[in-house]
Design a protein that fits this description.
With 328 residues, the protein is an alpha+beta fold. The chain has three domains: 100 residues, Trna Endonuclease, Chain: A, domain 1 (3-Layer(aba) Sandwich); 72 residues, Orthogonal Bundle (Arc Repressor Mutant, subunit A), CATH 1.10.10; 127 residues, Beta Polymerase, domain 2 (2-Layer Sandwich). Helix content is 33%, strand content 24%. It contains eleven helices and 18 strands. α3 packs across α4 and α3 runs antiparallel to α6. The protein is globular and about 65 Å long. The two termini are 38 Å apart. The relative contact order is 0.10.
């Protein structure tokens, strides 16, 4: 094995395996998150020589992005995946979704308090951007749409501009931002959106036919704020081969689980549930809900993330939903 620089290359170096007749381009990074991974993939498009990313730390979603585009990686915490003729290296474990994850997850690189994670209320800003990717946003417009302060919107915008996810135009109060890389932003939000403590209440209701429509109708009659989400909501847009065994419904935090179950004419159970009611500390994740053909559904972003985290083949179905709904 020989380390050298390829003539005329802007890469950080290369590895030549003479016995196997292989040459790898090498790109060094301090930390690779989904945004950086998308940038690496875009820069690697159309190049024939395989690329190896060497980093201090990587995140699980970033590693999945790199691997899905045939880009090898290795980091200082022991994560590695290289799959080439004559050279195969893998460490870590396979997640239940089939995606690669490390045996010990590494947190993203430290940020200052002025550079927030896109989670919680900051995550609402990310969702608004993803849901309207062609819109040019002012701070005031975003604060109103997401229901957050202009100070928080400014901090999130600043972080995403620095990460080249947002493109800015103009100056001062009339300055606008538009999403430059919606796919990277969706992956970043999905990775950083650590859920607050949520109450998940399993229940059973006798319903024939369209369960999502039935439960939404019952909750609406009781003026109970709610939104069907996850795979059950995704299936209303994308046809899945598997049956929907459990309908996941996000409901207002203002009601007790018993009140929610009573409104849905359901009974609380420990086993055999066909409905799961999800309640967060507030109603933030119901902000972008929409009514589609008489059924209240969570925002497309929320549906995608909840499906992605469903242990019952949710990741596979979430990817199909993402392809058809978002197209990136």
């Amino acid at each position: 094995m020989v380390s050298e620089a390829l003539p005329g290359s802007t890469d950080d170096g290369s590895l030549r395996f003479s016995d196997a007749g292989l040459v790898l381009r090498v790109e060094q990074k301090a930390h690779v998150d989904p945004v950086v991974a998308h940038a690496i993939e875009a820069g690697n498009a159309g190049r024939s020589t395989p690329l190896l990313v060497v980093a201090r730390t990587t995140t699980s979603v970033a590693r999945e992005i790199l691997e899905s585009h045939g880009i090898g990686y290795v980091d200082t915490t022991g994560n590695a995946a290289i799959d080439l003729p004559g050279l195969y290296v893998r460490t870590g474990s396979l997640a239940r979704s089939g995606s690669f994850t490390a045996s010990a997850e590494i947190a993203p690189a430290p940020r200052s308090s002025s550079s927030p994670r896109v989670a919680g209320k900051a995550g609402l800003i990310a969702q608004a951007l993803i849901l309207e990717p062609e819109r040019a946003w002012t701070l005031d417009a975003m604060a109103e749409r997401a229901g957050v302060s202009t100070a928080l919107a400014h901090r999130v915008f600043t972080r995403l501009e620095q990460a080249t996810v947002l493109a800015a135009n103009g100056r001062g109060p009339r300055k606008t931002r538009r999403v430059a890389s919606p796919g990277a932003l969706l992956d970043l939000w999905a990775e950083e959106a650590v859920e607050p403590k949520e109450r998940r209440t399993p229940a059973y209701a006798l319903m024939r036919g369209d369960r999502a429509r039935a439960v939404s109708s019952r909750l609406e009659e009781c003026d109970l704020l709610h939104a069907v989400t996850g795979v059950a909501a995704a299936a209303r847009h994308v046809a899945f081969l598997t049956s929907i065994l459990v309908t996941e419904v996000r409901v207002t935090a203002a009601r007790t689980p018993a009140e929610v179950a009573a409104a849905a004419d359901a009974r609380l159970v420990e086993n055999g549930a066909n409905i799961v009611f999800v309640q967060g500390p507030d109603d933030a994740e119901l902000r972008f809900r929409r009514e589609v053909e008489g059924v209240w559904l969570a925002a497309e972003t929320r549906v995608y993330l909840d499906a992605l985290r469903d242990p019952r083949r949710g990741a596979e179905q979430a990817r199909e939903y993402r392809n058809q709904v978002f197209g990136f």
